[in-house]
Amino acid sequence: MYIFKSDSQTSQYMVLESNDTVFASAYLQDAIRVNALTGFEKFSQECITYMTGKTPIYSGDINLGLFETTEFNNHQEFVSFYAANKAEIESSTEEWVTPAEIVSSTFSSPEEINDPFQSSLVYIDKTRSPEGLFDKKAISKALFHKVK
Known about the structure:
This protein is α+β, with helices and mostly antiparallel strands. It has helices at residues 33-50, 75-85, 136-144; strands at 2-5, 11-18, 21-31, 57-63, 69-72, 91-97, 101-108, 117-125.
């Protein structure tokens, strides 16, 4: 995994490669809560635009606190719940999956008191991922993990 941070340390680019082939990338942005939520919304819209004309499988989840995660398989239901609970959201993820690729957007609250909120955009090319290595959950967790 290669990580590139901005001079201000508020944004990061990550690239995963194997055998000189890039198969996943991510952009993570640190911000105050309202800006991180706006970033999440913008990144989700970019995912929707990117998937136009494709037939992805959608999944989303919203966490309102310990043991309060609601999962969705319909984007419109996600949007309605998100709008009604925006002030209480601790984390949220939207993901669109096709046989060839995955795109996702996340919002996360700080892990530590002085950490910033974060929004991220992830792209994974499943056709280029190393055989036997591809595990969507493992790659997503690696890309979403905050790099200090």
